[in-house]
């Protein structure tokens, strides 16, 4: 028997143990490849589920934004400004209630909360602001002049108290009061009026009213539009046509 086994071994025929080991060696790599393929498949499925959830979330957010945008479009054009104004007013009311509950002055608390930088910036804005909007009509110009003059008035409280003692209730005239010619202005008041009038005269002398027409100029136009055209032509070509005009006026033109 041993001789038979040795002979088979010498012929290269594998015995029972050798065959099982080779099958295990062949099955090992195939199982590892299948496990790796399964892992890759699970990874792809996981990534696919994540992408699907992201897509779902994006669609949901997009739908919500579309609804919100539709609501905003249906609102009035100045809704954002009104909303901000209302929120600011609510905050101010709450702040006033808190200050009143603590027994504090709201205006003082508000000024204490303003920083020095904000105060300087607001002061610069006030200085840059030009209240003179130019001439619109005579009524608006008269109103600006009146406001400017009243801002310059500095009341004399001592003189006011003296007048109250002197005239009593007659200082506040009614429709039945007869005070014409009884009031004599003080010398200081007359001096202030004279100084103000002199300032107005000096200011007027710095300006001159533009004359729309020059009475001494030659009339070389037939209407206003033609006059504007001639002015433009003179501005661009006047220096080239000056000699021709002089020859025409002298009658020496060829």
Briefly note the structural class of the backbone.
Answer: mainly alpha
The run of helices and strands is: HHHHHHHHH
The first-to-last residue Cα distance is 150 Å
Mean pLDDT: 79
Helix content: over 70%
**What is the 3D form?**
flat
Which parts are unreliable, with pLDDT below 50 for 5 consecutive residues or more? 1-14, 16-20
Radius of gyration: 50 Å
Number of helices: 9
Largest sheet: none
Strand content: under 5%
Work out the number of β strands.
0
Function: Involved in pre-mRNA splicing as component of the spliceosome.
Subunit structure: May be part of a spliceosome complex.
Family: Belongs to the SYF2 family.
GO cellular component, one term: Prp19 complex
What does this entry show, briefly?
With 254 residues, this protein is mainly α. The protein contains nine helices and no strands. One of its GO terms (cellular component) is Prp19 complex.
Give the helix/strand layout:
Layout: H1 2-11, H2 16-74, H3 79-102, H4 106-113, H5 116-128, H6 138-152, H7 157-167, H8 187-205, H9 224-250
Can you offer a commentary on this structure?
- The protein has helices at residues 2-11, 16-74, 79-102, 106-113, 116-128, 138-152, 157-167, 187-205, 224-250.
- The chain is mainly α.
- The protein starts with a helix and ends with a helix.
- The model is unreliable at 1-14 and 16-20 (pLDDT under 50).
């Amino acid at each position: 028997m041993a001789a038979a086994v040795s002979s088979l071994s010498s012929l290269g025929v594998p015995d029972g143990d050798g065959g099982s080991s080779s099958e295990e060696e062949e099955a090992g790599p195939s199982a590892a490849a299948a496990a790796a393929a399964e892992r890759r498949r699970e990874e792809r499925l996981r990534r696919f589920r994540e992408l699907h959830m992201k897509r779902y979330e994006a669609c949901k957010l997009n739908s919500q934004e579309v609804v919100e945008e539709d609501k905003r479009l249906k609102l009035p054009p100045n809704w954002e400004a009104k909303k901000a104004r209302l929120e600011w007013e609510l905050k101010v009311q709450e702040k006033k209630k808190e200050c009143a509950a603590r027994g504090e002055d709201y205006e003082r608390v508000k000024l204490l909360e303003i920083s020095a930088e904000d105060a300087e910036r607001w002061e610069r804005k006030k200085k840059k602001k030009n209240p003179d909007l130019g001439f619109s009509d005579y009524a608006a110009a008269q109103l600006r002049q009146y406001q400017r003059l009243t801002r310059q008035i500095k009341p004399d409280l001592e003189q006011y108290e003296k007048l109250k003692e002197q005239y009593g209730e007659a200082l506040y005239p009614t429709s039945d009061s007869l005070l014409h010619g009884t009031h004599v202005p003080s010398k200081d008041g007359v001096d202030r009026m004279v100084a103000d009038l002199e300032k107005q005269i000096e200011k007027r002398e710095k300006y001159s009213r533009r004359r729309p027409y020059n009475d001494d100029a030659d009339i070389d136009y037939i209407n206003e539009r033609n006059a504007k055209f001639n002015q433009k032509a003179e501005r661009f070509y006047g220096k080239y046509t000056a000699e021709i005009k002089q020859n025409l006026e002298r009658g020496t033109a060829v």
